[in-house]
Write a structure and sequence with these properties.
Elements lengths: L2 H12 L7 H9 L23 E2 L5 E6 L5 E7 L4 E2 L7
Antiparallel strand pairs: 1-4, 2-3
Length: 91
């Protein structure tokens, strides 16, 4: 997926909430950063407070916690077309 395709997907998602003028979109786009992460990457670590939001263009993001024995517990999944935010203090 190209950066332009990702931004188009983001705009379409945002416009399901409210229409955006081209001027507003261009301003918003200037403060966005496109990142492509490999599978199994860590987007945000537990305990860290993200300084940004993420929009999932392609793929699936799993939020989980681990206990002292290494057991993982899923908290929430973010699918394509969703925004990722700090969830219950766990990202």
């Amino acid at each position: 997926m190209t950066q332009e395709q990702a931004f188009l997907a983001l705009r379409r998602s945002m416009e399901t909430y409210s229409p955006l003028s081209n001027e507003t979109w261009q301003f918003f786009k200037q403060i966005c950063t496109f990142k492509s992460l490999p599978s199994q990457s860590v987007l945000y670590r537990a305990g860290e407070i993200p300084k940004s939001f993420s929009y999932i263009v392609k793929g699936l993001v799993r939020c989980f916690v681990s206990d002292e024995k290494g057991n993982e517990y899923n908290k929430i999944f973010f699918e394509e077309g969703m925004f990722h935010w700090l969830h219950d203090g766990i990202a």
